[in-house]
Design a protein that fits this description.
Shape: globular
Helix content: 25-40%
Radius of gyration: 15 Å
Number of strands: 6
Structural class: alpha/beta
GO cellular component, one term: lipid droplet
Catalytic activity: GTP + H2O = GDP + phosphate + H(+)
Number of helices: 6
GO molecular function: G protein activity; GTP binding
Oligomer: single chain
EC number: 3.6.5.2
Strand order of the largest sheet: 2-3-1-4-5-6
Family: Belongs to the small GTPase superfamily. Rab family.
Order of helices and strands: EHEEHEHHEHEH
Distance between the termini: 20 Å
Bound molecules: guanosine-5'-triphosphate, magnesium ion
Length: 170
């Protein structure tokens, strides 16, 4: 019999790395080449069935741009999982990951929050961050890791499913 669990998930990372695109690919199976920057916070709900469990996911997608960000503490409050995104074609978005982890630590009270690192835009040819670098960073910070493309769908479903599976195990 299915048990319905509600989970709060967050998506964070620099502006333009594809947070909203990953979310919209996952929830609506759409992709927009001209996806506009998020202002404030967006929110989507999706139900996922995993191993006889039904999880209702409440997914929060915040603006990467500081000037569009509001209500940061309430954004983080009560989250069980976080997806931290960088763009494999932008070294700076990878370098800034440490800042995002610091912010996460500042605003979350629970230390059992499950973290998934996603290297997005692997469909693009001009890569600046190797898969191994992503993997190494993820291991160092006890995060799950996956490379993905919101454009081609590669790894997107997997990223959310693995995160939820891990949360349900803990
Ligand atoms: P903010 O809301 O400003 O924080 O940005 P974001 O992280 O939500 O990025 P967004 O999803 O708006 O994507 C930024 C741009 O990158 C858009 O033009 C997207 O179409 C594009 N994009 C996102 N994901 C991919 C991808 O996997 N491949 C390619 N080629 N482009 C992508
Ligand atoms: Mg966005």
């Amino acid at each position: 019999e299915d048990v319905l669990t509600t989970l709060k998930l967050l998506i964070i990372g620099e502006s333009g790395v594809g947070k909203s695109s990953l979310l919209l690919r996952f929830t609506d199976d759409t992709f927009d080449e001209e996806q506009s920057a998020t202002i404030g916070v967006d929110f989507k709900v999706k139900t996922l069935s995993i191993e006889g469990n039904k999880a209702k996911l409440a997914i929060w997608d915040t603006a990467g741009q500081e000037r569009f960000r509001t209500l940061t503490p309430s954004y983080y409050r009560g989250a069980q999982g976080v997806i931290l995104v960088y763009d494999v074609t932008r070294r700076d978005s990878f370098t800034k990951l440490e800042n995002w982890l610091n912010e996460l630590e500042t605003y979350t009270t629970r230390n059992d929050i499950v973290k998934m690192l996603v290297g997005n835009k692997i469909d693009k040819p001009d890569r600046e961050v190797d898969r191994n670098e992503g993997l190494k960073f993820a291991r160092k910070h006890s995060m799950l890791f996956i490379e993905a493309s919101a454009k081609t769908k590669d790894g997107v479903q997997c990223a959310f499913e693995e995160l939820v599976e891990k949360i349900l195990q803990t």
